[in-house]
């Protein structure tokens, strides 16, 4: 009986250790321009209120409805370059003539506080994060078809025809990078809830892994 009690106590300790093993994750949401990353992120904010959602800095002009510090940190080119020189970005790149960068200090603080972090970047930025933080979970958000993606880009009405065609050509090339990601999720038309539910299932599966690597940024 005493041996049984001892074994049970050891088993309980193991079970408790398994409960405590979950480490915060760095989750990267990426995909071609126009695939719906912003909309997906907004719904994820509602589903994961305890997560930290990193805000990207950019030099591009603010679009209608965008709020500084919520959707992006809007900076002048000079401000951005100075911040990059100080090493403030986890990764940065120039896309369609504008600079984008992910501030890293807020990510570090969130991870230290035990919060998982969601980062939205383009495909080039996701590749950079993979090199710098191999423990990151990379999710590729894919359109249902190229024709659907073209329609979404046209409906935004934020680009001139030349830029629009450049985005479409870039999207075709970016699709070839999908095999560098951990997961692919199709963002079907009018099925936002299904898209976010699939991403949620991926996050839950990652949190259930027996081996939980520490994310070092």
Question: Which features characterize this protein?
Answer:
four-stranded mixed beta sheet; globular; Rossmann fold; 217 residues; five-stranded parallel beta sheet
What report would you give on this structure?
The structure is a single chain. This protein is of the alpha/beta class. It has a single domain, classed as 3-Layer(aba) Sandwich (Rossmann fold), CATH 3.40.50.300. 46% of the residues lie in helices and 18% in strands. The chain is built from 8 helices and 9 strands. The strands form 2 sheets. A 5-stranded parallel beta sheet has the order 2-7-1-8-9, with helices on both faces. The chain has a 4-stranded mixed beta sheet with strand order 4-3-6-5. A hairpin with a 2-residue loop joins strand 5 and strand 6 (98-103). Helix 6 packs antiparallel against helix 7. The longest helix has 19 residues, at 2-20. The radius of gyration is 20 Å and the shape is globular. The chain starts with a helix and ends in a 10-residue tail after the last helix. The model has no long low-confidence stretch (mean pLDDT 91).
């Amino acid at each position: 009986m005493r041996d049984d009690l001892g074994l049970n106590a050891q088993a309980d300790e193991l079970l408790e250790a398994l409960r405590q093993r979950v480490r915060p994750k760095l989750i990267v949401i990426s995909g071609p321009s126009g695939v719906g990353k912003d909309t997906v992120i907004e719904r994820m904010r509602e589903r994961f209120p305890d997560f930290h959602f990193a805000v990207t800095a950019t030099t591009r002009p603010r679009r209608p409805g965008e709020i500084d510090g919520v959707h992006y940190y809007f900076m002048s080119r000079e401000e951005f370059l100075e911040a990059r020189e100080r090493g403030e970005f986890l990764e940065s790149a120039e896309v369609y003539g504008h600079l984008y960068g992910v501030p890293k200090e807020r990510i570090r603080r969130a991870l230290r506080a035990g919060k998982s972090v969601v980062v939205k970047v383009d495909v080039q930025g996701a590749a950079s994060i993979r090199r710098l933080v191999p423990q990151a979970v990379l999710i590729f958000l894919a359109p249902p078809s190229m024709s659907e993606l073209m329609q979404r880009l046209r409906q935004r009405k934020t680009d001139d025809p030349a830029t629009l065609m450049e985005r479409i050509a870039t999207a075709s090339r970016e699709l070839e990078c999908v095999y560098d990601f951990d997961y692919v999720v199709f963002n079907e038309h009018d099925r936002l809830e299904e898209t976010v539910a699939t991403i949620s299932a991926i996050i839950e599966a990652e949190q259930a892994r027996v081996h939980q690597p520490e994310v070092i940024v």
